[in-house]
Design a protein that fits this description.
single chain, alpha/beta, 2 domains, 9-stranded mixed beta sheet, 7-stranded parallel beta sheet, 38% helix, binds alpha-D-glucopyranose
Length: 479
């Protein structure tokens, strides 16, 4: 073990706070790297986090942040959870909120101040404690490279990981003053973006290295179709950009030990027990029918339009369909109408970790028609649980799911049904193919069993992050 200290920062970390895949990665990646380095994870101590349950205690350090002529008090907290040290920043303006970023209608108006405080507090920490590298994630942590740029005496290097370029943290120009950021940074090579302040740009401009969560997404974000207006800027900085595919935590997601399942399993017979129990639980008929599921946020990104347009025809096919998720009201309402109309569609709205595990275990197919997908974790979990993914070939889905037509039993790749046009016709065709494959039991079973044995853990990708860290350490030694 190297004694290098890494500070891994994210605005959400499972199990403390989660709105999406970022929280899962912020939980599992530090665990995968903790053998090679000393990784501390840092996040805001939101008021809804149960301090007693996790044994979170004040570390005794307090300080004030002066930002835009105002002073903000900060208290640091700490806990050890499953062998990782978690550090927490508590300051009322950042933490005393009902939601992480805002309600479904929109973000909190002072998110610029809230997350700038997170970054300033981390700056104070790296001034006091020696961390060789800060590993930052998404726009909520993207100001720190700029703040470090302003402090030439601090030697800490930064790695910035983009999990989703569609969220950039863009605020009105007046934010500059209240965030105490010098006007000299307000230009197109830094955080200015069409007259506004863009946190993500600060990270891209000043981080020593940038990664994103799959090799395909790393290429896609250099194009106008996926670059969200930053393609040119990213092209300029592409020399320091790499794509590293996410892994899943195979301890957290393991069908053979999963305590959330009715009956943990290692083979398809055991899986069938879970399917029968689940169909009974939600009162869907006919366990012989293939079960197709969708789990995800009801947003444009996740291909909800394609899914909703495809559903009436899917409902007429010989299958059961179960949907779990939460999000925009228009999508939710449309799904609800369809679920009321067809007795082979079951909808559960909300976020329910245990139910999602039972669904992975029970299902035969996992539908993911995302319009864009930086990486996606659910398709890997699905394969690990013996549910075959049906995916639109984009971003991380391209890198992790290969079309069954090219199945090679000797490869280490996962297979599913892949479609390349982002529309409901292509999606329906893929579902038809999937159901046909299901009827060819030997072939279907062979692929699903193969998928269950593939390695979707952090083993390989962890090594790639280690390489990036080592390069940063070399750069810092060269000075
Ligand atoms: C974001 C992306 C998703 C990715 C996750 C973790 O939620 O939308 O594709 O898997 O971050 O990196």
């Amino acid at each position: 073990m190297s004694n290098s200290r890494i500070l891994f920062a994210a605005s959400e970390v499972y199990p403390f706070a989660k709105s999406g895949g970022l929280a899962d990665v912020a939980y599992s990646l530090p665990r995968a790297l903790n053998e090679a380095y000393n990784v501390d994870v840092i996040m805001p101590l939101y008021q809804f986090i149960d301090r007693v349950q996790f044994g979170i205690q004040a570390s005794g350090e307090t300080f004030n942040i002066m930002m835009g002529n105002k002073s903000y008090p900060v208290t640091l907290y700490i806990c050890k959870y499953e062998n990782i040290t978690y550090r927490f920043i508590y300051t009322p303006l950042l933490c005393d909120r009902e939601f992480l970023y805002g309600n479904p209608q929109g973000g909190y108006e002072d998110n610029d101040i809230r997350f700038a405080l997170f970054n300033y507090a981390m700056l104070e920490i790296v001034k006091r404690d020696i961390y060789e590298i800060v590993h930052l994630n998404d726009w909520q942590t993207a100001l720190l490279p700029l703040l470090l740029n302003n402090e030439p005496k601090i030697e800490t290097k930064s790695l910035f990981t983009i999990h989703n370029l569609a969220y950039q943290g863009v605020f009105e120009k007046k934010a500059l003053a209240r965030l105490g950021i010098d006007e000299k940074y307000f230009h197109m090579d830094c955080l200015e973006f069409y007259g506004q302040v863009n946190f993500m740009k600060a990270g891209i401009a000043y981080a020593d290295k940038i990664t994103t969560v799959s090799p395909t997404y790393a290429k896609e974000i250099l194009t106008p179709e996926f670059g969200c207006g930053l393609e040119g800027f990213l092209q300029y900085h592409s020399g320091k950009l790499t794509g590293i595919v996410n892994g899943i935590d195979t301890e957290q997601f393991s069908p053979s030990t999963d305590k959330m399942l009715v009956s943990p399993y290692t083979d398809l017979r055991g899986k069938a027990v879970n399917k029968r129990a689940f169909l009974k639980e939600i009162k869907l008929k006919d366990p012989k029918r293939p079960l197709v599921i969708f789990i995800g946020r009801f947003t444009w990104q996740k291909g909800l339009e394609i899914f909703i347009d495809a559903l009436p025809d899917m409902a007429l096919m010989e299958c059961n369909i179960v949907v779990l998720g939460d999000g925009e009201a228009q999508y939710h309402d449309a799904l609800k109408t369809l679920a009321n109309k067809h007795d082979n569609i079951y909808l559960k709205s909300g976020y329910d970790e245990a139910l999602s595990h039972r669904m992975y275990a029970a299902s035969d197919f996992f539908l993911m028609p995302s319009l864009f997908e930086p990486c996606g974790l659910a398709q890997m979990i699905a394969m690990h649980y013996g549910s075959m993914p049906i995916v639109h070939s984009v971003g991380g889905l391209t890198d992790t799911v290969h079309d069954y037509a090219a199945f090679d039993a000797k490869s280490q790749k996962g297979y599913g049904v892949v479609f390349s046009q982002p529309d409901h016709h292509a999606c329906l065709d893929a579902v038809k193919k999937a159901l046909l494959l299901y009827s060819m039991k030997t072939q279907y079973n062979q692929i699903v069993k193969h998928n269950m044995l593939c390695d979707f853990s952090w083993r390989e990708s962890g090594e790639l992050y280690i390489k990036e860290y080592e390069k940063l350490k070399e750069e810092s030694q060269r000075g």
